[in-house]
Design goal:
With 375 residues, this protein is α+β, with helices and mostly antiparallel strands. The protein has helices at 2-10, 13-29, 55-64, 71-78, 90-104, 111-117, 153-167, 197-200, 214-228, 234-248, 252-281, 315-328, 344-356, 358-363, and strands spanning 35-40, 46-52, 81-86, 120-124, 132-136, 145-150, 284-288, 296-301, 304-310, 332-333, 338-340, 365-366, 372-373. The protein folds into 3 domains: 2-109, GIY-YIG endonuclease (3-Layer(aba) Sandwich), CATH 3.40.1440.10; 155-272, no CATH class; 282-373, no CATH class. 47% of the residues lie in helices and 17% in strands. The strands form 4 sheets. It has a 4-stranded antiparallel beta sheet with strand order 5-4-6-11, with helices on one face. Bound molecules: iron/sulfur cluster. Residues 170-172, 176, 194, 196, 198-199, 204, 206-208 line the site of iron/sulfur cluster.
């Protein structure tokens, strides 16, 4: 009680009055049902979006937080109103929260980003001379392609360096100007030597100094994707041949260095195989009992929710749902493990949900394995 009085004294009177009004509204109107809630500033800006399987209890914990030490209390102090919507289940609330955060990008929602930063991704940039590099989390809605999530950013970066070296792909700063050999208008001052050691020692094709065409470079990027998908082994084969040649010449130190490169590339491929398998297992239909009988059915493929709606109750609804499932699981090109930037958070959420609720995974209904064909 003493702590409560001390906290209240620290709030300016107007802020305290506002806080008390919001608290009264929560106490009188909010119920302990799954849902999302949002804290709004005076001008309507969404400051924070949260979710809970018990909205009332969760909101009350924000009001109990100590000001100004706790983030919750600071959010409440800045908020002018609080609103909430109920969802049929905790899973539905998780999905809804994710979408609301993407829509409004609230200032106080850093938790989601923190989750994503636990994981490393390989990012393939868009634009001329794409670059493969390791990042933590996604960069939001960009045109890049992501592969992941992976644990161990350092080892991943080392393995990726080997792949870049083997295929002659760039690893320089993203804003480095590129000048392809087939570019119609070359800047007059394009130097033949870029001052980059990777070009000098033959580890980069040199797209910055017109040493390669765009098509030649793109072909190497294609090979990199094929390698990651486990369909192209040339970089490993070449390194193995060089390793054996070094051994025969009794250059054991060089042979050992080449062996380490081979190991790193093999481990990179193995990680991709495990990733594709793990993501592919997150493919099923999932029916969740909802509050008040509002049961929902989700069609999840490769960790992303591809369809959601009321669980079918009649034969006609079931037929419609089955048709939707067939559509979602229609044969597609073999999965490369690539994830569009805007789907990364959903993949992480779905994976985390079923990791934390393994019994739910057992309730999910596996669909017939998707037929695959080579891309
Ligand atoms: S040679 Fe040019 S494109 Fe390649 S890594 Fe060096 S600066 Fe980048």
């Amino acid at each position: 009680m003493a702590l409560r009085r001390r906290r209240r004294k620290e709030l300016p009177p107007l802020v305290e009055a506002r806080r008390d009004t919001m608290l009264a509204a929560v106490k009188s109107d909010a119920r302990d049902k799954p849902g999302t809630y949002r804290l709004l500033a005076e001008d309507g800006e969404v400051l924070y979006v949260g979710k809970s399987k018990g909205v009332r209890t969760r909101l009350l914990t924000h009001f109990r937080a100590e000001y100004p030490r706790d983030k919750s209390a600071r959010m409440i102090a800045e908020a002018h109103s609080v609103a909430w919507d109920y969802e049929p289940s905790e899973f539905a609330a998780c999905i809804s929260e994710l979408r609301l955060i993407k829509r409004w990008r609230p200032r106080y929602n850093v938790a989601m980003k923190r989750d994503a930063r636990h994981y490393a991704f390989i990012r393939l940039t868009a634009g001329p001379a794409p670059k493969l590099h390791v990042v933590r989390g996604s960069h939001g809605h960009d045109d890049a392609t992501y592969f992941g999530p992976f644990h161990g950013a350092v080892q991943l970066a080392e393995a990726l360096r080997e792949l870049n070296d083997a295929l002659g792909l760039r690893d320089c700063a993203l804003d480095t100007r590129m000048h392809f050999a087939d570019q119609v208008e070359l800047p007059v001052a394009v130097a033949r030597t870029p001052g980059c050691i990777r070009y000098e020692i033959g580890r980069c094709l040199g797209p910055c100094v017109a040493a390669t065409t765009a098509a030649q470079y793109d072909e190497r990027v294609r090979l990199a994707r094929e390698f990651l998908a486990g369909r192209h082994d040339a970089p490993i084969v070449a390194l193995r041949e060089a390793m054996e040649a070094s051994s025969e010449r009794l250059e054991f130190e060089r042979a050992a260095a080449l062996r380490d490169k081979v190991t790193r590339l093999e481990s990179l491929q193995a990680q991709f195989t495990r990733l594709r398998f793990a993501v592919e297992t997150l493919s099923f239909t999932y029916t969740v009992s909802g509050d008040g009988g509002d049961d929902r059915a989700y069609v999840i493929r490769r960790g992303r929710v591809r369809h959601e709606g009321p669980a079918p109750r009649t034969p006609a609804e079931q037929a419609l749902f089955d048709a939707r499932v067939a559509e979602v699981f229609a044969p597609v090109a073999r999965d490369s493990g690539a994830v569009p930037a805007h789907e990364i958070d959903e993949l992480l959420l779905v994976a985390s949900w079923f990791r934390q609720h393994p019994a739910e995974l057992e309730r999910a209904t596996p669909t017939a394995p998707a037929l695959t064909r080579s891309a």
